[in-house]
Design a protein that fits this description.
The chain is mainly alpha-helical. Helices cover 49% and strands 10% of the residues. It is built from 16 helices and eight strands. The chain has a three-stranded antiparallel β-sheet. Helix 9 (139-153) packs across helix 10. The relative contact order is 0.11.
Length: 312
């Protein structure tokens, strides 16, 4: 999805729901368990609303709402016609024999980041990583174009203060962290994707990401392809690197890192994908399209293999 899709008539922006609380350690696991324990998807909706929710989650009412907001945004829960359900990602990470129940692995954090940013559900997050063309910025550099877009599209009740608070919360999610003045508040700060320059200015940290596993890159690349051009058998390097929602944009990778990973695609994808560089044309060839369920099973197996290799 690109800025043109943000301009579509059926797009509904989201600048709130977090109650100004950044995503904290332990919240996603709590949300997963609460919804998993509910008798049905319909009943699960009420675990964040009933009188027992404050005691259930051990936080105030506003934080309960924030937990729900981040769990859905990060792809751990999903809203369905039946109600509220856990996702394949939530089950893979936190379910029985989950790969990372305490979110100790970099791979898990990259997957959470992907779900937060590669989809346009959270408008400010999507815009910052996929539409913003600069490096360093102050909040107004992001707020102003979002307000302009809101005016153009006739989005209701999108005030400057609302967008600015949303962006502040997003920055705290990616900048604050363990040992800081906001200890325990920002899960994703460990990825180092946004760095503070001074009290006003921050910067997107583009470059190599050595702690991004190829298993995660491969899964996300396939997911992007299925959304961007599902019927095409080839994809240009430029789209893989720079298109909104692509791994290159979402993970803030530089060209060298992207090329290195694409050159390994044939090996890590068991030949379903291959890198081609002929007559100056750089592209990826898809020899076989695998079902999304298969891609998820392969990711699961690769994460387990990676973890066992590191432990050896």
């Amino acid at each position: 999805m690109s800025i043109h899709d943000l301009k579509s008539d059926d797009y509904r922006p989201s600048f709130s729901g977090h109650e100004t609380f950044p995503m904290r350690y332990g919240w996603l696991q709590k949300a997963y368990r609460a919804v998993s324990d509910a008798p049905s998807a319909k009943d699960a909706v009420h675990v964040f609303r009933d009188p027992e929710s404050i005691a259930r989650f051990g936080v105030g009412r506003n934080m309960v709402s924030a937990i729900r907001h981040w769990a859905i945004g990060a792809g751990i829960l999903e809203e369905t016609k039946e109600g509220l359900e856990v996702t394949w990602l939530g089950a893979m990470l936190f379910g029985e024999n989950g790969t990372d129940p305490y979110l100790e692995e970099d791979a898990s954090l990259w997957l959470l980041h992907w779900h937060l940013v590669a989809r346009p559900r959270l408008t400010s997050a999507y815009w910052l990583f996929n539409e913003f063309r600069g490096g360093s910025f102050i909040r107004q550099d992001i707020v102003a174009p979002l307000l302009k877009l809101a005016l153009e599209r006739g989005w209701n009740r999108v005030a400057s203060t609302t967008v600015d608070r949303d962006l502040q919360c997003l920055l705290r999610t990616y900048i604050g962290g363990r040992g800081s003045s906001e200890a325990g508040e920002s899960i994703l700060s460990e990825l180092g994707l946004i760095r503070p320059m001074d009290k006003q200015r921050s910067t997107l940290s583009r470059g190599r990401k050595p702690n991004l596993p190829n298993s995660v890159f491969l899964y996300c690349f396939n997911e992007f392809w299925n959304k961007f051009a599902p019927e095409q058998a080839t994809m240009s390097f430029e789209n893989a690197a720079y298109a909104p929602g692509s791994p290159g944009r979402v993970f803030l990778l530089d060209e060298d890192d992207i090329v290195d990973r694409l050159e390994q695609l044939e090996e890590i994808s068991d030949g379903t994908l291959a890198w081609s560089e002929t007559a100056g044309l750089r592209q990826i060839i898809r020899n076989k399209k695998r079902p999304i369920k298969t891609e998820r099973l392969i990711l699961h197996k690769m994460l387990i293999t990676d973890r066992l290799r590191e432990a050896a």
